Amino acid sequence: VLLDNGNLVLKERPDSPAPIWQSFDHPTDTWVPGAMVGMNKITGEFQILTSWKNSEDPAPGVFSHRLDPGGSNDYFTLWNGSVMYDHLGVWNGHSFGLVPQARLSSFFQVRFVETRERKYVTTILSNDSILVRLVMDVTGQIKTWAWREDEQIWMLIWSRPVAQCDVYSVCGPFGICDLSNLPSCSCLPGFHPKSLKDWNLSDWSGGCVRKSQLQCTESTNPVKSQADVFSEMPNIKFPTSSQNLSVADADECRLACFNNCSCSAFAYDGVCLIWNGQLHNLQQLSAGDGNGGSGTLYLRLSAPDQTHSSGKNEVPVVPIVGSIVGFVILSSFVFILIVYRSRRRASASMAEVIDGTLLQLKYSMLQQITKKFSVPLGRGSFGSVFKGELPDSTAVAVKRLEGLRQGEKHFRAEVRTLGTVQHVNLVRLCGFCSEGEKRLLVYDYMPNGSLDSHLFRREPPCLDWGTRYQIALGTARGLAYLHEGCRECIIHCDVKPENILLDGSYQPKVADFGMAKLVGRDFSRALTTMRGTIGYLAPEWISGLPITPKVDVYSFGMML
């Protein structure tokens, strides 16, 4: 029998009280409300969500989500059943410690249940008319989807980890993840996909293989050797499972790797690190975005193939080279001219947006005031934020946007909204940088951080009631100004504690307008793209009802 909640039940007879087998006890990659994911204490059996191999093959993949086998009330997301790269945090009676917003969901309630026989987590729908499912996706992310009846499509409302590159070994061995590219996975130099068919289906787990095998010729001077070479790769988050060696300098570290046939790469920054065998979990970082566990990686490759021609079949090289050089110069000139004109048009368009009220800053200056982005304040789905100091000693926060398409949309949304309005309860946008593909925004620095860091902290001091009231009232004033006080109504679309910043006096500032929408006063229709964060989303986003400023009011109420 297939029940209304999606549970497929096998019974001996229709009136049998207990099923012989039911699908809720044996989940695949999908978890629906009412199902239980946990363990049977009597049999020791776990219910585990396991990803598909790829988008077309339901065979088990390498990613899974399960209750901590060590006995805690935490849920782990694993690679290959062994490497834990994300977890929800221990259940505290109301929510999992690292996802407190889940308790505020308008779609379902999360419950953790422990009895003598079982221990599991389940969800109960707040509205039976809403269809919601959670999937252990082939990307290695846990994703929650909701059904949009009006458009007949599934809409993504939540994912964890947020960033694709935070998934362990998402690109497989010898693959590298880069958030600024789509797709985010590619092969290291000198490698190609092990299975191009799998890569075309977004299954990168097989990773990459070498185009040419290593020669592995021992030498006391690898620089002069005609065998293997090392390719320099800056701004890399290092692979896992490195080995430390005691050496005198970088040359000795290089030689130690060169003379070890198993060594695939090395790094040296006062300490010699080498990696043997396959390289997993590499990530390309933006300049200045590195921290511990990142730097310049030297990748071992086979020496480039040399082609030699001789005799009557030898082709003259000089004319060919001259033709190629001439063609490249001409093509480069045309390309530069096109890019220059397009950037002039883009700059003119942006100049109309900012109307002379913002500072247009050079990237070199932002590098200088942030000390090469050395003091990180936080990181979100659109980029990283760093502390800086202007020449007049004014502290600022510099947001560096990442991802070409998403970053550009976020950048323009922020400038179009914050660049044209000012209010005591809105964070002030001081300036911006738009050079080539670089997009940065400069704000007033908020010394007390974001509201979520105060609401969800376990250690004292807690915010007193007077301060909480001040924050709630100030946030309401900021939103009211966006809705009623501007020439065009501005819907923020992502009101949550993380987007409420606190100045030195704990005065709130509504921030992060990357999802904001400028609409007319009589605007009332469904938007095609869902915006916001699960736990704070108004029901209109799911049901397809017209979107109005009330969606911000709903999110404010959930935050309150």
Number of domains: 4
**What is the CATH C level class of the largest domain, in words?**
Mainly Beta
Proportion of beta-strand residues: 25-35%
Q: What kind of sheet is the major sheet?
A: 8 strands, mixed
Unreliable stretches covering 5 or more consecutive residues: 305-325, 342-356
Query: What's the count of strands?
Result: 33
Radius of gyration: 28 Å
Transmembrane segments: 317-340
Binding site for ATP: 399
GO molecular function: ATP binding; D-mannose binding; protein kinase activity
Protein name: G-type lectin S-receptor-like serine/threonine-protein kinase At2g19130
How is this structure best described in words?
There is one protein chain. 34% of the residues are buried. The protein contains nine helices and 33 strands. Helix content is 20%, strand content 30%. The chain starts with 8 loop residues before the first strand and ends with a helix. A hairpin with a 5-residue loop joins strand 26 and strand 27 (395-401). The radius of gyration is 28 Å and the shape is globular. The protein has four domains: 9-162, Orthogonal Prism (Agglutinin, subunit A); 175-302, no CATH class; 359-444, 2-Layer Sandwich (Phosphorylase Kinase, domain 1); 452-559, Orthogonal Bundle (Transferase(Phosphotransferase), domain 1), CATH 1.10.510. By secondary structure, it is α+β, with helices and mostly antiparallel strands. It is a single-pass membrane protein. One of its GO terms (molecular function) is protein kinase activity. Keywords: ATP-binding, Disulfide bond, Hemagglutinin, Kinase, Lectin, Mannose-binding, Membrane, Nucleotide-binding, Receptor, Repeat, Signal, Transferase, Transmembrane, Transmembrane helix. This is G-type lectin S-receptor-like serine/threonine-protein kinase At2g19130.
